[in-house]
Design brief:
By secondary structure, the chain is of the alpha/beta class. It contains 19 helices and 20 strands. Bound molecules: S-adenosyl-L-homocysteine.
Length: about 525
């Protein structure tokens, strides 16, 4: 061999829920030089890729297969021959209606080495997430996977649907939505009882999953009335009846609710996770962007006499993050900070400080600048004391002026980050939000409310869209919402993400009562 040749991994990505990818697949993604991926692959999975990994989208729609398939194979060959480790990432399992066989054979012909990484296939996921056991003692002891959509270039269908109608197996039909009526008719003609329980599971394993259950005979009408289409798996068999009781996924408290999260990208994750665990569909619409903003001259001034400060006060978790990132870069030993007393505006800020093994002395119960000023003044230690307040480009003014005017402190302000409006043109979820709206929209800062008010025209929901109920993390954000003309419908008593999500859960439960 003249040059080093890479390897191709034909990898199953699972059915949609990013948590259903295998550990092996994730490890390969994190090492790959090139990832070639399909339409039904969850985009979040690509986050595992290295920064300089090349990602190539080869998504295709039904009906345009063969030429593109050849082109996909050419891309794989070209990339692997250039010495790359190539992951070919496919929805579900690569060997179940995934054309993985063809791709692997082509690689063998070219003398290219490859591996197969199986994935959770759609039928297995649909069954699991709809609470339908595919096999069940005394009810069904065999399962058949079928496709309703064979090679579009072939005129005649090879599947003898009537023959499958004569079986009492559980049937799982992929790509069957376009021909559902014909398929069902043929199964019944073949002998399957029209009263057999059946279900269509669309978008299995992701927040927008929908299930339609009916008898086999009624299924086509019911599915049409519900407006359901691809991607979906049709499941036929007595086992489907079990789903009435075992439907865990769709009975989670926020299932079917759409929730828009307006925090900045870096901070949206925790809120997203908490909402998704409860079953919500989360739309990330970051209204603000937060970035480091260090004025080296200002830092030098302050750090030249760091030892002279009595108090170090943080007014936000972002302040903590950007302060310590820069501080530790300049002074790798945390002890350079000295023995200042430390205060945090609230629990989230305190937690961010504690991550550096520093315990803040003051954390007011109510996370506002006012409450923090009160708590600091109450210590009786401010008179003539030097206080360093770490802030962002916005806010902190009230806190600082009270520390000065009522506490008689000497206050220096150190801005460490900047909050800007996010450009909504660059946010993929905005289109979806405008078209379909959401049930709830969450605000966790007044800067996000400000951005929302200023960009209202860009976010205006269409005529068909659900108008979302505004949820606020706490009093400051609520005040800002009210002054912007937005009615606050959900606000927790305690200011924390957990309490906010809990308040939304309760609100949703009351709404369905
Ligand atoms: N290799 C894939 C199948 C690809 S064929 C696998 O193993 O799952 C595409 C078909 O798979 C769709 O038309 C639909 O029938 C099914 N499918 C894929 N993802 C699905 C999902 N999340 N929910 C329901 N059906 C899905």
């Amino acid at each position: 061999m003249t040059e080093k040749q890479g390897k191709v991994y034909l990898v199953g990505a699972g059915p949609g829920d990013p948590g259903l990818i295998t550990v092996r697949a994730q490890a390969l993604l994190s090492q790959a030089d090139v990832v070639v991926y399909d339409y039904l692959v969850h985009p979040g999975l690509l986050a595992a890729c290295r920064r300089n990994c090349e990602t190539i989208y080869v998504g295709k729609q039904a009906g345009f297969h063969s030429i593109e398939q050849e082109r996909i194979e050419e891309i794989l060959i070209e990339k692997v021959k250039a010495g790359n480790e190539v992951v070919r990432l496919k929805g579900g399992d690569p060997f179940v209606y995934g054309r993985g066989g063809e791709e692997a054979r082509r690689l063998v012909e070219q003398g290219i080495s490859f591996e197969i990484v199986p994935g959770v296939t759609a039928a297995v996921a649909a069954a699991g997430y709809a609470g339908i056991p595919l096999t069940q003692r005394n009810t069904s002891s065999s399962v058949v996977f079928l496709t309703g959509h064979e090679d579009p270039l072939k005129k005649a269908t090879i599947i003898d649907w009537r023959a499958f109608g004569a079986l009492d197996s559980t049937l799982c039909i992929y790509m069957g939505m376009g021909r559902l009526r014909e398929i069902v008719a043929a199964l019944i003609e073949g002998g399957r009882d029209p009263g057999t329980p059946a279900a269509v599971v669309q978008w299995a394993s992701v927040a927008r999953q929908r299930t339609c259950r009916a008898t086999l005979g009624e299924l086509p009408d019911r599915v049409a009335a519900a407006g359901m289409g691809a991607p979906a798996v049709v499941i036929v068999g007595d086992v489907v009846a079990w789903g009435d009781k075992l439907n865990w996924f769709e009975s989670r408290p926020l299932f079917g609710r759409r929730v828009a999260v307006t925090r900045n990208r870096a901070q949206a994750g925790e809120l997203r996770d908490r909402l998704e665990i409860l079953g919500a569909e989360v739309l990330e619409i970051p209204l603000v962007r937060v970035s480091a903003d260090h004025d080296p001259k200002r830092w030098d001034e302050i750090f030249a006499e760091l030892g002279a400060y009595d108090w170090l006060v943080f007014s936000s978790a972002n302040g903590v993050k950007f302060f310590f990132e820069y501080f530790l870069e300049k002074y790798p030993d945390i002890r350079s900070l000295g023995a200042m007393r430390i205060a945090a505006v609230g629990k989230a800020t305190a937690r961010a400080i504690e991550a550096y093994r520093i315990i803040p002395e003051i954390v007011p119960a109510k996370a506002t600048g006012e409450a923090l000023a009160d708590a600091l003044i109450e210590t009786g230690s401010l008179d003539n004391a030097k206080v360093l307040v770490v802030t962002g480009s916005l806010g902190g003014d009230k806190l600082i002026s009270r520390l000065q005017s009522e506490g008689f402190a000497i206050v220096d302000r150190l801005p460490v980050y900047r909050t800007e409006l996010e450009r909504l043109e660059d946010v993929p979820a905005v289109k979806d939000f405008r078209e379909r709206g959401a049930d709830y929209i969450i605000f966790t800062s007044s800067s996000a409310v400000q951005s929302f008010a200023e960009q209202a025209a860009r976010l205006k929901p269409g005529a068909e869209a659900t108008v979302p109920k505004a949820c606020s993390i706490g009093p400051v954000t609520s005040e800002k919402l009210k002054s912007s003309g937005v009615t606050v419908q959900v606000e927790p008593e305690r200011q924390s993400l957990g309490a906010l999500v809990e308040a939304i859960r309760e609100h949703a439960a009351r709404a369905t009562e």
